[in-house]
Amino acid sequence: MLIRVKPxxxxxxxxxxxxxxxxxxxxxxxxxAGTALAAPFAGMxxxxxxATERLAMSAPxxxxxxxxxxxxxxxxxxxxxxxxxxxxxxxxxxxxxxxLKPRPWQVVIDGLVDKPLTLDVxxxxxxxxxxxxxxxxxxVEGWSMTVPWIGFPxxxxxxxxxxxxxxxxxxxxxxxDPELASGIRTQPWYPWPYVEGMTxxxxxxxxxxxxxGAYGKQVANQMGAPIRLHLPWKYGFKSLKSIVKxxxxxxxxxxxxxxxxxxxxxxxxxxxxxxxxxxxxxASEIVLHTMERVPTQLFNGYGEQVAxxxxxxxxxxxxx
Length: 320
Ligand code: MTE
Fold this sequence. Notes:
Elements: H1 25-33, H2 38-47, H3 74-78, H4 93-99, E1 106-111, E2 117-120, H5 121-126, E3 131-138, E4 143-153, H6 154-161, E5 169-174, H7 182-186, E6 195-199, H8 200-203, E7 209-214, E8 217-218, E9 228-230, E10 243-249, H9 256-260, E11 284-287, E12 292-295, H10 303-306
Parallel strand pairs: 1-10, 4-11
Antiparallel strand pairs: 1-2, 3-4, 4-7, 5-6, 5-10, 7-8, 7-9, 11-12
Bound molecules: ligand MTE.
The site of ligand MTE has 16 residues, from loops.
């Protein structure tokens, strides 16, 4: 049976339109978090606690990925996260901090590869050359951040896995152990685990990034410890957190949100200001820490790096 769930991203048209010239933080949270308004505020006081417990991590900044926006302060980022395994609101930080145990952590690489691998996450990290990249991060809900991620390109994982030529997609999966996340138990209507996918061509593009650190430390639980994805040209829901499995496959993966509402959260989900979400405009976005409303850019401003991936695919619904 297909259960239709309305995600908290499902802001009304009114709360996502330019009336937001007057929008303050309270109104933004009301619009974005819907009925769970009280929870984000509850989470804010303690969300920053996570920052004190992570190991320092440093890597040279890749100059190719400098951007013109200010970095979102870490404390602001930690107050405002989507991680439905801990609840359908932005203040999941304290629960993710206490419930998720990011080490030891096994990562499986399997499917259409010569030799399937199971690695400890630190062994995987040890095989990679880490770098820092400043990336814009645009959520389908209409807000954005700029984050200094530390990690390695997805294509380095593809090289390690050496997929067979029959592999057309990379499917990824978040953990689904209810012992690690209370929301998995309390929200059984979601089709866990959180799954996402991309084409093998997208995985081979330099921009796709596997994140293991942020703000000079190991990545926080609430941001997706110990390893999460960031595809900055796509809406944020494509970038799944706390990954346990990478599977090379010839079948197009169906993501958690696509399972729930395919017409709203599709496979491609490339950012495009001219293609509205069925229930709100995507023409602009609120930059979280300044509360400024700025125009959204095609491919979130990364067209130079990724537009060629979609050449000749005009018939596809590439932007939802
Ligand atoms: N990954 C998992 N496993 N569960 C989630 O709920 N939310 C997605 C994505 N990855 C999500 C997830 C959404 S909707 C967004 S916008 C980003 O994570 C948010 O990342 P952030 O909290 O680090 O900003």
